[in-house]
From TrEMBL:
This is NAD(P)(+)--arginine ADP-ribosyltransferase. Belongs to the Arg-specific ADP-ribosyltransferase family. The keyword Lipid biosynthesis does not apply. Transmembrane segments: none annotated. It comes from the Eukaryota. Keywords: Glycosyltransferase, NAD, NADP, Nucleotidyltransferase, Secreted, Toxin, Transferase, Virulence. It is found in: Secreted. GO terms for cellular component: extracellular region. Residues 1-81 form the WWE domain. Pfam families: ART, WWE.
């Protein structure tokens, strides 16, 4: 009997890529993982004890553990489910998520401007305040982006996750967020095109993506800053870390701006685990959020318990959060620049 996934384990589904997929001499290297989104779709069906689920052009037969090509039922490949202890099996953070170079921009009026023009543009253009309309706009937008990127299967899988959300008829987003179990956060934590496309659009202020990516950006930002009945446990207070590869010119920019307020335009993934954050890059951001008791919107959220990658110990900072650059120093022992930021002031 298959072992059950726990909060510290993840279920990973794989398919056999061997030229002779039914061979009894299949090696471990022949097993290829489905994408995070596809694996989640299969796992959801498995947990519901469904006999099958359709993933793109394939039927996933959960009774006989076979992947069947829809256009030719004779083309079949074995599939398998494995449980991975994420703390033991995966020891590094995802590079593009946690180590993308961070370029600071100046708030329009120094330290008083929080937030994102990109998200605000969508918010002001959308005139339906109910949660159902906003979530449907997010799901539709993700599918549209998936079509552009030829990632339709993953896009439809993530849209389906959002559409599983349940709310009362006509319920406003702020009321829904106050009481909800934010399962939609898992969608953002999956390894997919979504978080990459969202943050690229936010960083580049690509207003052509407002209609498609704006809704989910808004939902995510709103929840981090405003929504949840778990008030005391949700807002993170402490120190978090983010590794990065910064150019010398970018590091010099941080040096010249010590004492000033700046912000990052995209959502920023940080980790509570310094050792993991130090594994890549020439720069470590050390971000202090210990004393932000009176600035509740200027903080991050510990999303690790909702994450597909619990081991990352992720604290997510909202888009456009301002920070003060406290100090920049070079550590000879680590051969890294340490950049100290403060979001508590």
């Amino acid at each position: 009997m298959a072992s059950e996934a726990t909060t510290s384990n993840i279920a990973r589904w794989c398919w056999n890529s061997n030229n002779d997929p039914q061979s009894t001499t299949t090696g471990e290297s022949d097993w290829k993982s489905y994408s995070d989104v596809q694996s989640l779709m299969i796992e959801n069906a498995y947990q519901k004890k469904q006999n099958q689920v359709i993933i793109g052009d394939y039927i996933i037969d959960l009774k006989n553990f076979q992947q069947i090509y829809c256009n030719d039922k004779h083309k079949q490949r074995p599939i398998k489910r494995t449980i991975i202890d994420d703390y033991q099996a995966i020891v590094t953070l995802r590079e593009e998520r946690f180590f993308f170079p961070a370029t600071p921009v100046k708030p329009f009026n120094e330290n008083n401007y929080d937030g994102s023009d990109f998200i605000d543009q969508w918010r002001f253009s959308f005139n339906k305040p109910d949660a159902a309309s906003i979530f449907e706009a997010a799901a539709t937008g993700i599918v549209e982006e998936g079509k552009i990127l030829d990632q339709v299967v993953d896009a439809e899988g993530m849209a389906a996750e959002l559409r599983r959300t349940r709310y009362a008829p006509g319920e406003r987003l702020d009321d829904f967020m106050w009481r909800c179990n934010p399962s939609f956060l898992k969608v953002y934590t999956l390894e997919s095109f979504l978080y990459k496309s969202m943050n690229r659009a936010l960083r580049e202020q690509d207003m052509t993506k407002v209609k498609t990516l704006g809704p989910f950006c808004f939902i995510l930002n709103f929840y981090i800053q405003h929504g949840s009945h778990q008030y005391n446990s949700r807002y993170f207070r402490g120190v978090v870390y983010r590794g990065s590869n910064q150019t010398l010119d970018e590091i010099e920019l941080y040096k010249t701006e010590v004492g000033s307020y700046r912000k990052w335009l995209g959502f920023t993934s940080t980790s509570r685990n310094r050792e993991k954050a130090e594994q890549f890059g020439n720069t470590l951001f050390i971000i202090d959020m210990q004393n932000n008791y009176y600035i509740k919107y200027r903080t991050g959220m510990d999303i690790s318990k909702y994450s597909h990658y619990l081991f990352e110990e992720e604290v997510l900072l909202p888009a456009g959060i301002p920070f003060k650059i406290e100090n920049v120093e070079y550590c000879n022992e680590k051969q890294k620049y340490f950049i100290y930021l403060n979001i508590s002031k």
